Structures
1.
Amino acid sequence: MIGSDGSGGPAALSDRLTRLARVTGELVDADTVEGVCKAVVTHGAEAVGADLASMTLLSDDRRTVRLMALSGGVEGDEETWSTFPITVQTPSAEAIRTGTRLVVTGPQAITRRFTDMPDRGAQTVVALPLGAGGSVIGAIGLLFMHARELDDAEVELLDILASACAQSIGRIKAQEDAGRQAAKLAFLAEAATELASSLDYQVTLGNVARLAVPTFADWCAIDVVDDGRLRRLAVAHVDPEKVQLAHELAERYPPDPDGPYGAWHVMRTGRSELIAEITDEMLAEAAIDEEHAAIARALHLRSAVTVPLVARNRVLGVITWVTAESERHFTLDDLVLAEQLAKRAAVSLDNAELHSQTLAAAVQLQRAVLPDEVAASSGWELGHHYSPAGRTEVGGDFYDVVELDDGRLVMFIGDVMGRGVVAAAAMAQVRAAVRAYAALDPRPALVLSRLDAMFEHYGSEQLVTLLYLLADPRADTVTIANAGHPPPVLLRADGSARQLAFADGPPLGVGAPIRTEEHVGFGAGDAVVAFTDGLIERRGEDITDGQERLADAAVGLAEKALADLVPSLVQRVSDPSRDDDVAVLAARRLV
């Protein structure tokens, strides 16, 4: 029989104690925090006959409380009390603040003490703090619509329930934390590998943004400083459909450059920012209009970490991580990891910028060396081709044509070993020197000897190959000197072709060679084709195979104009998968 206090007799008490003990056992087997909370508010409430039960947990910032589970409430309670400040006057908030079990009986006593709790006519309220690791992490709230007196056995078992609940949550969180830490470390290692893999920072940082989701965050945005302003470089979201929504938000409602928090604030100050809880008040305060607020709410923002990308005391950009659908909240540990990743990303971005500037200088220098057009008088037909390799640094191929006042034609082609600015600078020096020496005395062996002397005098460490030809229509000859370069192909007017593999010597500046030259007949209609090794080399193939392939292709194309012959040779002979520059220079005597 149930007594006037609703507690029942000894049999009912025994049943309640048994059911409470069973709930405590269930908590041991629970494998999620949500599972623990659900077991408490359902089975725990039934065990003690509570009309309403709630489970709340203190947030990481220890300023707000989150409602984890609720049974017996009215419509709207879960939304209204989803999060609330720890300072509110409710039983659970007070139990968390004080760490003390609360049992308050009587409607007047309840309403006087808990002024923020809705008046539902409760007769008894109970709040049990959840203690773990020396601190309070949450509370169990019980509400009875009838007067309820708890005897010592029930109180003791409720305390045991609260302790078991706290321990289960602590155990599960420790397991989750260990899993998250392992995932974060794996993410950091993978991101570091990605950042070191390429100098294309736009692609690299875009990949890093995608790596962060969902391991570290639900949403990641990367902005870079461009002419004093922030430019959105990459966005990744756990829900691909919301990427467009995020772009729309940034485009239609750009962040306030003078705002008190967010990417602009971090860029200005160079200091990281952690917002453990993004509240509705914050969204409303930041919104320009109701539509802006609606879009922001649709993204379900929960927590945010924003860190600067700093290298050499310059803020290069900002990375923002946001949690949303997962309802995770960032902690100081997350901020530390974010800053570690940002340091690596900043170095990668800075290196990419330096490389981009260096590459631009090298390309500009190379363009100054390589002629846009090669031209000569009406007695000559010229053709040329240059295609850079598909890489991030310029190569060392160069060529040029010089028509002398007496009608002779100098043509040369070379290859500086190496890439980048150093190779481009060497190209410029050698090209200028060849033109100068050719103007003084164009004889091939003499020009190469003077280049050797220049290399020896200045102690150049660059390895340079050079093929130098002097065509003389008066003598019907072409004279060749070669410093370690692939030999040219001679195309006769009758359509035959052969390699001119003689007068060869070491690359410029290597040893102290005696340079030689060779004279070959060169009549009207004859053509000579010079090239760099990128045209004929293929993986796993001897270079002589490439030379023969070139000669065979040249025979089939001999009747073509050089403007058509040169690109056709490149298409037929070169290996498009090979990472090397290809340069071709051809001259045909017309009269």
2.
Amino acid sequence: MAKVVALVDRDARDTHDGTVPRSAYALLTLARRFGEPVAAVGGAGPLDQAAIDTLGRYGATEIWCPAEMSEPAGSTDLLQHLAARLAPAAILIPATPGGQETAARLAVRLDSGIITDAIDVLPGPDGGPVAIQRCLAGSYLVESTVIRGVPIITVRPEAAAPEPHPHPVTPAVCFAEVEPSPTPSPEIVATPKPAAGRPALDDADIVVAGGRGIGSRAAFAVLAEVADVLGAAVAGSHTAAELGWVPREAHIGLTGKTVQPGLYIACGVSGSVRHRAGMQGAKTVVAIGDDAAAPIFTMADLGVVGDAQAILPALLAELRARKAQLSARKAEDRKFR
């Protein structure tokens, strides 16, 4: 079986289990569809045993790291080395800003074709990868294949829900003598923002999003309180981000974030094609707004037609009351244990 290389980008901000980003689990899940998953670990510092075990749980049979782990090794250099050594059927890379840069540089070095922003990767008739992409503001899906060199595919977060391998393996940890490129990749410097005390948008099980229909910054603050009671992440439409009600990095849509939570609550969001492209992977959608003809209601599992500015305070009060009742019940139960 051909090997499929998945980049474990430890510079990503969705890191879990010590040193393994969540995106790696999704890439390994996809890689199992058409080959033997191999994890390529970028960044500096050794993997701990928990991270190795986790990668094996998602199907990685081999974990490749730079031999000199004390120095940050460029992901492009490592992937170039593995492409020559393993002749993989494909190289999967997370569609993060850094991942897109790595993929572009790698494609030039290998003289290979590249597909970006895939939302799914499936085995084709010949067993090779077929990437699914959105086009025309998410209205259509296209199937794309690479016909030159090693297929390099960047994958968006919603491409696959991470699924542990039914038969976990103990991966072999291998070290590659990576020759640094004579023209090294530029250092990408990120300045992390202070934690908001809420779940990361990419990982949240519940997302509460607001749009222009919220009406004001003050009303958006109430929406944020609703999110906090639910333990949810806060997001917004493109318009809400333009108005400054929500940070630009929390903008949901074709040109912003793509999420697939268990519950997506859209308040005052009309549901344009561009917005729906960023949240249509949600399992349950609740829409709140005063325009019953808004497109968001066509995909909502539950719709509440009314003024969001009036509904949100009432919803907040009800949630707080129920949360207080639940806390009191738990406290009472503990007395009898």
3.
Amino acid sequence: MASIEGGDGGGGHKKGPGVKKAKKLSTRVDMTPMVDLGFLLITFFIFTATLSTPSTMDLNMPKDTNKDEELNKTKQSGALTIMLGKNNNVYYYEGELSPDASNFKQTTFKGIRDEIIKKKKSVIASYTGNAACEEKARAAGKKDIKYECADEDFVVVIKPMPDATYKNTVDILDEMTINNVKRFAMVKIADSEKELVEATEGPSTGAAATPPAQ
């Protein structure tokens, strides 16, 4: 218990005619309630403070393999390949890259969102059926079985150039979430694709922005 004692100590006045004896005063302050209040506030903030939980994003990474047929098991017609260049440049092509690169195109991040939406709608519209997928969706209790299986045919392949920034890489991954792309993967850009990008914007000089292969 803490207290504050006050008084004159008896040495401040002298006895004599006409001199009144000062009354000794004692001031006592009990600090115990303040201590209790302090501990209560600390306990309150400890138990009510909300800790920030980091959000994560699932990223499909391809397995290392030397077999070309295992590198791409998806339908070429349902694939959209996106390449990230320097200075926020974005390049893409649908399906398989043609020998004359006639389907190789350049756009912006705003434009690539429109291309993702358009390609996804095109893949769903051209769905012809998948018995195995439909049976699995039916067993899982899915309502729109055709849409669920048609959406499985759409896949986005992301290929950052060495000069691509991590911000651009994160931005394109955000586009996958925004547009509800179920299947996407980040892979190393091919030499032929790299040459096309460099022919457009110049040789690359930076370090690749791709994460290590798993």
4.
Amino acid sequence: AFSSMAIAFVGYFVWAHHMFTSGMSGTARVVFSVLTFLVAIPSAIKVFNWLATMYKGSIDLKPPMLYALSFIFLFLIGGLTGLVNGALATDIHIHDTYFVVGHFHYVMFGGTGFAFFAAMHYWFPKVYGKMYNIFHANVAWVIMFIGFNVLYFPMLVVGIMGMPRRYYDYLPEFHLPNIISTVGSWILVAGIIYMVVNLVQGYRKGAKAPINPWNGLTLEWTVASPPPLENFETDPVVTEGPYEYKN
């Protein structure tokens, strides 16, 4: 919680890192560069928190966990490329290039999007009382993860090479990376469609979900799915810690 508050607070003071090439004074550029680097500290703390949460845990590589692990990996790449953007020497070169586009999408889509997909797959049986096809969910994850990186990683490469964003055309030397990115977008969209179709099929024709499909010990997995209006007919009995898992 404190790291989230720190990111939000410092985030108020980094806006000028979009303006390093606008003619602002050298002192102002240094100050905003340092403030941008400071955001990386609580962000790194969050990554270590997520990894430490899994330490000595019962890792079950089902769709929710696969999407969650992807989120951490993609968010990490987005954060590390953000350091490159925050450094004055490199930002002058990559300002308004496709490197910025790649960085932004690794953070916002790779982070927020894949975390959202993890939550969708985790809470689906609790919300609808039905189960989607686990195999097809895993296939959709593989397609999306591959497609995402094939789409956005070449943008980091061509950005370092100097390809500007917001241009309708590009120089011949950038042709192959752009073709690769385009193919990656098709793969990613195909994976998203695959995922949505699988979830819709699960909602319409899926088998009845067990009360506790993930073997969790938190109280929401001790009642029927979807939960009845009163949640618990009697006071629930708690015998183990909330972050422990059954074998």
